Amino acid sequence: MEIPQILHKHIDACAKHVFQDLIPNWVNYGLTDQGYSRESLTIDWQPNLVGRIRLLTQCRQLFTLSYASEMGAIQGYDKQIDTLFTFIIQRYYIDGRWIFSLNDDLSIKDTQSDAYALAFVLLAFSHYYRLTRNNEALRYIELTHAFIEQHMRHPKGGVFESYPCEVKQRRQNPHMHLLEGYVAAYQATNDTKYIANIIELCDLAHNAFVDTKSKTLREFFQDDFALDANDGTLVEPGHHFEWVWLLYQTHTITRREQDLKLAEELWLTAIEHGLAENGGVYNSISGDTLQPIDSEKRIWPITEYLKACCVMALPAAEKNVRLEEALSFIRNHYFIDDGRWIEYLDGHNNSKGYPLPGTTGYHIFLGLAEVLKWQDSQI
């Protein structure tokens, strides 16, 4: 079945928004003379100081610029990409490990090593290596992996969320992104040792994160992965869709059919209970009642929905409709002129007036990149 022209039109318009406007404008206004990315910009592309500059933000920007260049979607940013990579390793890698954040004046703020941020070191440096073949990136991927293995392993499975290690509420989210990082590391290096990490993290989804009765992915846990007493019912449909996409990526490496079965279960729960009648994806629902907890809508969940739509084995007509409706919603409710976007909608699809985070471009870019990959596969 051919892709409908209206869907081609939406894809082309979104590609223009991201590659001709959003990314160039972030480079122009969001990257500083020192080479790092600002943490946030106002809606009119002005600096929005928030009191910290995170490793996470720098890695998401490095990933986006590297992968978009690797795709051939953008050109001419080699200097900015190399400068950003150098800034990251010079400013955030201290005494044999990664720190969490700097102050606005670039002095050190938070020296904790954060598992969520380390996941994005793996992801960003893998794509930077694929673009540049700079062996320094491989060295830091290996150092990051070794640090996680030696210092952040939790005795009851998974990882501690930070180092120095503290006993506190545990989350599935850092583990999900570590899975993404290890998939990228394997794809960049073909080093089979990362397959063990991939399988282990998928097993955590099966055995700890997903409630088998409700087929919901839970977010917050106690030390032993029992549900957190206060937040254990919370479910984020966007993370359902993110896991769907990731489990399809891991299947290309491990060929574990049980992971595709889990992906289908997560997909079915999320499309039945996570999509709002007036469009978009709820921020959160209850895993017990499957009713919305937070009916407002950040932009990132619908970009994860795009990724899941692209990989799920759906009838062609259904896939076309889902992608068309989602891209239309993004264009009409999130994208505004000059590459800007609405970060946060209320339940009635009105803007909540948020600034532009430096971390969101990663979601927007990767959602569209998967749509473009799917579009090319249909030719």
Automatic annotation (TrEMBL):
InterPro entries membership: 6-hairpin_glycosidase_sf (IPR008928), 6hp_glycosidase-like_sf (IPR012341), AGE/CE (IPR010819)
Name of the protein in question: Phosphoheptose isomerase
Pfam families for this protein: GlcNAc_2-epim
GO biological process: carbohydrate metabolic process
PANTHER family recorded: N-ACYLGLUCOSAMINE-2-EPIMERASE
Organism: Marinomonas piezotolerans
Assigned keywords, A-Z: Isomerase
SUPFAM superfamilies named among the record's database cross-references: Six-hairpin glycosidases (SSF48208)
GO function term, MF aspect, one: isomerase activity
Recorded family membership: Belongs to the N-acylglucosamine 2-epimerase family.
Gene3D superfamilies per record: 1.50.10.10
